[in-house]
């Protein structure tokens, strides 16, 4: 009998002595959900390679995430040959999308297709779905392993040191930041703004600012700030233009949502559609300096899609390799309803519910955020 | 006596036997105007190095273009040591800006500073200014050489094979196009849109599309198109999504201006502010596919500032080197009111008025545009 | 009847009104010979795509150059789907090699396979082979088109402005030169040496030196030099270390062969195996400065394989696209024994014998070489 | 009184409440010793910036490592302005070298110059020197802080999770590996060999192999292997060429030294000069396949200098920033004879003697090495 997950304990990841599936009986499926993230192809590749090492012959990709279970889209046959070089390109070989059929329909489709191992690459919503599928499978008494690999470029999964794609995102963000720096620095009273990913968590913005050494102001969702007012961002910007002649701002997409009109719109993944803080700040800056009679030359860069579509760098490549291997080891060990990760430098299996309750965030009292503040030299904006 | 330019003839560029300035009497100034363009630092660097080879000791940069003549901004002393590695970064060491004082004020400032060689890096408007300065200097009977180096990333200067920065722009555009391709390809009914530079001329869009091999639709200012209607872009897009599953569009910023509300706003350089065709197309596509009940997943990338801020690639590096050397040779030969360029594979001097009357454009009947159409497979959109 | 080539005339390349093959009767084969060169996959890709546009259904790749005709290696079926993204990787999809069976055996194999269009990507030796095949086919009265695409990273084909891969090579060489510059500059009495491609011609070394602005000494096959002696390279190097503290040398592989022991060894392509001038210079420099009691810190970089294996840059991508299209147009127009190229800015067809008699070389009296000397500041080394 | 280090304990790094130097009394010096490593400029930059934040005015760089103490080379004045963008280039702003005057002479020179804070960036030998300087200073009763920052691209420092430059090296190694893969894959019976850094430790080779997914055989100093014999590398290579058609080998420079003639030569840092295992393997492979009558096409790449001269990537940039800040905090806290590092995810101060006794190595029984073996699919070569 399968051991599934035991609800709360963390297990060290890796191969187990006993395996709960005969490789010749396995039909494994892989799906990628949500938005793009560097490393998706690396994880897919490694899952396929490791399955083949176990001796599995039937491996397929379900196209376009959960959606692929709901319609007539053909399965994508996978093998070492197919995936050999996919990690050299960004994107997802299988396609991604948000939304899809409901849990019961997905499980129906899995039964029809004879899938008894499902690897799910996605974020919080996707993992919630994976867990629901896992529970439905148990309810139906089916011996199927459902294993998640957390995919969030924002690096905001609870308990995990780092999620794949994050390191690449920070690296690629350097290019945008350096462009903004050069634009700002070469302009008369130049202000460069870079909007980076980070719906609830400012990890990318913080690390990218720290790595670049070129950011004067870093704004993240975890740290409230004022734009106007005596301690606001605009006042500090005025000071920077007077003393340094130019300034560069890096803002996480989820920062300063209080300045934007609330919408109740949600995307197909169920995420609230955020207002565009980058555009808002750009407009406020332009207006402010025009009003005080000394216009600034504002350049706004949104590199989001150029970062997401990158191939994984070497560091993420290794992380993806290990996560992919462990996902397969976990499934063969009979775990289900789990996800893989790196936790306090150790690779582990975690029950899905443990990691999806809320997003991990930057601690404003942490050393890392203070290092970031030291590096930017920015004051409190309250 | 200085020979200035002779009004219409093209001269082969290069060093002359006789020089019209004693190097020890020369005070040379360099200015960079308008927006950023890869290679500005390369040209500055080469002008400085070549001036030093001639024996010039007094070389300065005027900060922030013509604006630097109008206020108290300090001159930037230049020497081989200062410029040695500036070509390894993008931007302009001297700063750029639009606008500035009027011609008479500029010439006053030049006289005060004792400048008798002025190297002007800029676009059409900047060259018109340089020519006016040249004429005013003649009127005042001053022996000053004014030499332009055409800076237009759009590659739209009359008579010239290629302007510096263009090759780099096409190269860097590949990165954005490939991101758009990956986003579109990985999405369900994905459409990637890349807006590229090109106010009046579609050279960057055309060449970038041709080089990438990943563009399905290329839209440029020179070729009218319809969005709606039986032969419009949207219809073709629908066909592409049905047959290929995804599509990538590359649009020059000056294309399809007829779809946008005319504003009479002009920027500080006197250029009409264009409507944003990229955003417009994005919205029309979203609306169209929503209306026909089969939404598309549209991703829009505007890499403009990330392209402009790049350092020059090797090919542009060589072009900048030769242009910079020739600018100095021309000034020492006593030419004024000229600009340097490469014309039918030869490096030449041209009288400024010859090149600034209107922008060079893509010929819709040219082989290159037809090769582009072959590559994209797009029909006429009329 | 096929028109073949007319022995001496140059024809403008492009599609013709009449075509000499029914697309449905065509079986086209592509081979790549010799060493790697950026752009091979781009040309292959474009030939395949253009053949499909003409309506050809039977397209194959012969693996590993002429060798593939000689043994039991399977043909590689080619189609738009197969080649869609091959230009994003370097190398050759089909494999390359030197040598192979004799002309008669190749033509036998072509007859057996039913090939009536052969596209040959390779250098001088390969083109000589293509011409011999063409002649043998005529002798046998077979209606087969043999069309070459010159592949030489050295850019040393007679009459041609530029061959594909050259621009990329110059670009990639920057990386090695910059590394050598940093190593030399960061070391005490540091000397960086970069060996670049160029068996008979110094185009890559010259252009790479010019583009980088970081080279002090550029040595090419066309310009004789002495190492020792009062005007030798070593004396100048001593001067550079005393005045600048470091120096960077760029040497083409074919330079200074007079210093090396002659071998009569030839590689499988029939090229004489060159002595290693880079290693030789490195050793002579070390010895010289040790002997004068003031050792230099010498770092030697040979980036050859890292340059050859690159994917084509945008500029070469466009060149490859046009050459590939023209190769197919030429074959359909009934030409045979020709090769495609760009000649004085025009794309043309040339009879093979016209271009292979000897390699094109750098003219030591040309402006470009003099610009290079100005840039490096090096004296005559004789 | 200064607390120096307490001989064996590890302290958490960071600012302390009490500082043991008045900033206005401090004259701080920075030196960089040994070979280049990505991130040197980042650490220099951050030390300077942090010193300025403490209020230090006198900051200098000693040129070319310890050697700079021994002769008349001028100190390099450092300030935020000087170092602002140095992290954008590789190398060391201060120059590096091996060797130098003896400890007593160095301390004499420090006294003359009035240096009371010394930051030493270097490897094991350099740290041994720093410790000796620290002891000599104590013997002379001088209140001087000597703080090391471990610089070893090989990542082979005891107790430390990671040293700066390592991550960048693994990243850059990908480029060489991919070139070798493409060369091998495009050749008939192609073998690509990449030699990577790692005198005693195979971390770079192991991680680079794991990240690339393109390596078939990874050879490191920690794991003995045979070339010839029934289980040797050559036998496996033969198998790979027969089954896959090509193979890629990655070898650490310190691997297989038993195959090479022992020399007793040492470099100026006192390191034994290693034989060139890369060249040796290349020759043995060529010979072997020639002898068995089926030659292989072997391509050898040594990217060492191109990797060392890189600028730091984002991840190393952050590590360097934190190490640089902590080095200054440590000095101001009155520590001396210590070095900074990251140890079990925490930033710490360690007494120098604790970390230099021998190099950290790859554990052949570790999970990471086993993951590498899984990835390459290589057997034991004994």
Polypeptide structure, described:
Four copies of one chain form a homotetramer. Chain A has 382 residues and is α/β, with parallel strands linked by helices. Helix content of chain A is 38%, strand content 16%. Chain A is built from 13 helices and twelve strands. Chain A has helices at residues 40-54, 67-70, 80-83, 103-113, 124-139, 166-186, 203-212, 233-243, 277-291, 304-308, 314-332, 352-356, 367-376; strands spanning 11-12, 27-32, 58-61, 76-77, 117-122, 145-150, 190-196, 217-219, 246-252, 297-301, 338-343, 346-351. In chain A, the strands form two sheets. Chain A has an eight-stranded mixed β-sheet, sandwiched between helices. In chain A, strands 8-9-7-10 form a four-stranded parallel β-sheet, sandwiched between helices. In chain A, α1 packs across α11, α4 packs across α5 and α6 packs across α7. Chain A starts with 10 loop residues before the first strand and ends in a 6-residue tail after the last helix. Chain A binds chain D through residues 14, 42, 45, 50, 53, 87-88, 161, 167, 170-171, 173-174, 178, 207-208, 210-213, 313-315, 317-318, 321-322, 325, 344-345, 347, 367, 371, 374-375, and chain D through 14, 42, 45, 50, 53, 87-88, 161, 167, 170-171, 173-174, 178, 207-208, 210-213, 313-315, 317-318, 321-322, 325, 344-345, 347, 367, 371, 374-375.
